[in-house]
Amino acid sequence: MQSQGRLIDVFSAAGRHALETRLGVFVAARRWFRSKTRAVAATSLVCAVPLPGEVKEMVLAVVRVGFVEGADEQYVLPLTWVHGDAADHLTRARPDLVVGAVTVDGEERPRWLIDALGDRHALEGLYGLFARSAVVTAGGAEVAFRAVGGGFERFADDAVEPRPIQTEQSNTSVAFGTSCVVKVLRKLEEGTPPDVEMGEMLTRAGFAHAPRLLAVAEVAWPGAAVATIAMASAFVPNVGDAWSFVLATLARRTVSADGADDAVRFASTLATRVAELHGILAAPSQDARFSPEPIERPEREAIAQALVRSLDDVLSRLDHHARRLPPDARERLGALRRRAPAVRDIAARFVAADGACVKTRVHGDLHLGQVLVSGDDLVLIDFEGEPARPLVERKSKRSPLVDVAGMVRSLHYASVAAARQPARDVPIDGLRRAAEAWHVAARRAFLDEYFRASAGRSVLPAAPGARDTLLYFYLLEKCVYELYYELDNRPDWVPIPVLGLQRILEEIDAG
Ligand SMILES: Nc1ncnc2c1ncn2[C@@H]1O[C@H](COP(=O)(O)OP(=O)(O)O)[C@@H](O)[C@H]1O
Ligand SMILES: [Mg+2]
Q1: Could you read off the pLDDT of 129-149 as tens digits, one per residue?
Q2: Strands (E), 328-456
Q3: Which residue is closest in CA terms to ligand 1's atom 17?
Q4: pTM (2 decimals)?
Q5: 290 CA distance to ligand 2 middle (Å)
Q6: Which of 102, 219, 279, 508 could disulfide-link to 1, CB 3.0 to 4.6 Å?
Q7: Which fold is adopted by the domain 242-509?
């Protein structure tokens, strides 16, 4: 790659081919790259907008990745460069940030093109762009930073210390001091992302248990619809997410008795917050994006058929996988097959549940990892929906019990994961028993409190029987999703949804 002295030169027509090749290699190796199993055919630069920074030049690049089969994807890549000693240090310490070397006219040593989200000065520049609500145009493309609701300006004078957030992520998030968190949405999709729509709505509704949305950044170029590249939300002081919190709690326990109170307190708070969220989302609205709607019979039939079909499909995939399962999980598989008719029964009852089914906007990917532990309270984050689904689907309305099922399953996952990570000095059997006792207490408390807090809400069936039918239906749906996910990504974890599914089918059978 080549430059006459400015960063934007790297993106000029002359050097474009070399740049695109490097960008292709870089993007495909990132954790946030969504299509790791597809063969990449070609990478091209869609737009490159120089963003003014006080200290550091930055360019917002959008890269299109074409595949041998299937639809293209576009990725957001804020880039900057480093040189001199800083470059030597960075290329050694953070090779994951480096796109490649750039030869600059008149300079002996190369500069290095890097991911700007790993560069302190570039990040300070990004913060400034948000704070000033900057609008930048270049070559027909426009990048606009826009305050939303609470606005971003109020933080402009605070000391901002950028801190990249290192937890497992499908995007890239950076905290600025205790002011805000900027999430750069790596996969570019046309239209407003669910996280922004939901953030705006919940901020306007005054929901105190999700981060306030402060600002968004959008890009547009000729022939393309506006797409969101980043969002800024208020920083939530926290000691980590609820998944880590539960695992740490369980690692300390060997006796179930003193765990039950904790489990009940934690799960009740969680249920209260989820029920409050659902209360806001269930309110009548003039805004068609948010108004609750009935799930009519044809839609219920389609959902039910899809569940029955995918359960059959995933069970046959599990049969192929059976050799690799531990003996107890293999036995369970046999039991599952025998109980499978219960699924058809629940599916039929779901279809027949007339007048009881309403869909609203939902969180869509609710689990313990999407909850921050803040003081002795909990805050719900990441309203982006399941990352693998397309944007339109992630914004679709569904029964709020989808979220409830997600959380119930997550409580189970956490209890099994806790028992799988034996702590020092704690016998594994004690750990397992304590984790299971915690799970039973937490699940009961979560559901009791959720249904207590949502009683009388017209989106849920009033009769406990009908309500349970819906809950079981969505629990089964979630287990099937988990089975596919684990078979593809973490075969070691397959026994968890197998056990989950078996238990749910047993409960259904027991009436
Ligand atoms: N408003 C916030 N305040 C503090 N930390 C946050 C905030 N939003 C996100 N985080 C941190 O960033 C991590 C990733 O955020 P998330 O929205 O879940 O992104 P992703 O789409 O990558 O999963 C969270 O687990 C949390 O640690
Ligand atoms: Mg997340």
Answers
A1: 998 899 999 989 999 999 987
A2: 358-359, 371-374, 377-380
A3: 382
A4: 0.93
A5: 22
A6: 102
A7: Aminoglycoside 3'-phosphotransferase; Chain: A, domain 2 (3.90.1200)
